[in-house]
User: Which sequence fits this backbone?
């Protein structure tokens, strides 16, 4: 039953989020994120674009089979082949949605689709009619909606609702909209489309001007939309999508104004943010709202004093309500396998076999030998490393010796395996990381370009593990390699090799909006 006071949260981290350069994820990683989204109580999970690649198809199918509480959705272009593929991937889902789209702006119709408006209108209607054979939960998006002509939009939207579309999603595909105009457009469309009350209206905003959250909220408050499409950490194409954590906490903190409820369990927000960041290698900026490391940190004396006297003086949300908790020391080198397994369960990490638990426990012991206190963040990094490795380790790190001294050229000796064959390679460079990458490349000769390099401390203190992301590009493909270790040069070597493994795996993915 449609409840006008409840807002539907539609998460597209696994589809639009994954379109971010370098953010591609393996099937197992996607299933892990989908389970976390289910714990977060997201209403709809857009699990991918089934027709884009066999990998996307399999991931949607696996998610459809393992998630029970959220509706699972696949994107599809407005053609029978894509829609049939989406339906097939969604077959095991308890609740399924097909999301079909076609561009409606003059620019996209002429330059990209090379279609006349009348053809686009017919194709949109046919697609929805065909999709209705597979499920009665159909979402339709007029791509580049915010740059489309309103009269034409009204005809298309009326047509697809008449064919049975149950959700109309209005996208600001290129992040061009401004809040007041965007909200007013949706309100006018709802007033002008005669059967608009037969569908739930939704917003889908990109962040090119930093307005995605503001536009989404205006679409709700001014336009009357009752679904927001968003991603964890605002991941997504170019500058990203609407950030789930920001819209949800705005709706909740300012419930006095929005007067809407959402079904989200907000205490799962920070765990979801950390998981997505660790899996994709996209670090969260410290001053990011809600999930940034500084979001609840008070540095100035006046603020600290105020907070100690009454928290509300400078805090509008409670850190624990969004899932922040003190960095607890959870385990150490004397902890046994049962304690480790119990902690994995508390963190919501489900391992498929005892063999997997054993492998993760062996890595934990290895880490505990080198690091006295193991935090939840360390365990999450360790499991991520395990999953990166399970994707197949064509390149495998073994050991590293490195020398750097003021005034001398840094030098590294890296032992690693390529397809099971061990090599010991030496290299020098401008710094220890440069020397390490040069040592690896002296043998691997991959020709990959390093286009981003970042290091993050996983927990607090100098004893923290460093988590390194290296974004590599080769022949138009961009991947993120991630590595963690208490030694940041070792973490860098692992990140570089993990990136090479991703480049090596040939799974290609079509761009859904082509
Ligand atoms: O940004 C966009 O237009 C999209 C559509 C497919 C909804 O992602
Ligand atoms: Zn989008």
Assistant:
């Amino acid at each position: 039953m449609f409840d006008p006071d409840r807002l539907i949260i539609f998460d597209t981290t696994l589809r639009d989020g994954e379109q971010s350069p370098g953010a591609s994820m393996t099937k197992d990683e996607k299933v892990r994120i989908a389970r976390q989204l289910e714990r977060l109580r997201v209403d709809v999970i857009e699990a991918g674009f089934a027709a884009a690649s066999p990998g996307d198809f399999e991931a949607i199918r696996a998610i459809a089979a393992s998630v029970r509480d959220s509706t699972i959705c696949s994107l599809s272009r407005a053609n029978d082949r894509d829609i049939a593929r989406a339906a097939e991937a969604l077959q095991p889902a308890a609740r399924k949605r097909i999301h079909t789209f076609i561009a409606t702006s003059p620019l996209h119709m002429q330059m990209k689709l090379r279609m006349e408006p009348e053809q686009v209108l017919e194709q949109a209607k046919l697609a929805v009619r065909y999709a209705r054979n597979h499920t009665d939960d159909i979402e339709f998006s007029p791509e580049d909606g915010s740059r489309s002509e309103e009269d034409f939009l009204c005809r298309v939207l009326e047509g697809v609702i008449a064919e049975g579309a149950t959700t109309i999603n209005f996208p600001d595909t290129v992040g061009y909209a401004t809040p007041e105009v965007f909200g007013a457009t949706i309100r006018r469309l709802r007033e002008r489309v005669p059967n608009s009350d037969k569908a739930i209206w939704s917003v889908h905003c990109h962040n090119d001007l930093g307005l995605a959250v503001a536009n989404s909220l205006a679409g709700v408050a001014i336009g009357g939309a009752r679904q927001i499409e968003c991603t964890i950490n605002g991941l997504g194409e170019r500058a990203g999508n609407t950030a789930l954590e920001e819209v949800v906490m705005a709706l909740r903190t300012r419930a006095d104004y929005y007067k809407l409820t959402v079904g989200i369990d907000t205490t799962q927000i920070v765990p979801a943010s950390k998981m997505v960041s660790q899996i994709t290698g996209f670090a969260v900026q410290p001053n990011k709202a809600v999930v940034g490391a500084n979001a609840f940190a008070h540095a100035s004396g006046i603020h600290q004093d105020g907070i100690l006297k009454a928290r509300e003086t400078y805090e509008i949300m409670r850190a624990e309500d969004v899932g922040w908790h003190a960095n607890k020391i959870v385990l150490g080198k004397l902890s046994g396998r049962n304690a480790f397994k119990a902690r994995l369960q508390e963190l919501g990490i489900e391992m498929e076999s005892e063999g997997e638990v054993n492998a993760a426990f062996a890595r934990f012991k290895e880490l505990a030998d080198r690091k006295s206190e193991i935090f939840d963040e360390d365990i999450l990094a360790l499991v991520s490393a395990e999953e990166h490795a399970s994707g197949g380790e064509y390149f495998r790190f073994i050991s590293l010796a490195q020398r750097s001294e003021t005034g001398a050229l840094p030098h590294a000796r890296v032992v690693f395996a390529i397809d099971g064959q061990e090599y010991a390679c030496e290299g020098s460079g401008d710094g220890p990381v440069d020397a390490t990458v040069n040592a690896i490349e002296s043998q691997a000769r991959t020709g990959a370009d390093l286009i981003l390099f970042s290091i993050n401390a996983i927990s607090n203190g100098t004893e923290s593990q460093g988590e390194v992301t290296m974004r590599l590009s080769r022949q138009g493909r961009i991947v993120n390699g991630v590595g963690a270790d208490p030694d940041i040069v070792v973490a860098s070597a692992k990140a570089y090799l993990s990136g090479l493994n991703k480049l090596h795996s040939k799974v290609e993915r079509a761009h859904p909006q082509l």
Summary: Residues 510-514 have pLDDT under 50 and may be disordered. The radius of gyration is 24 Å.
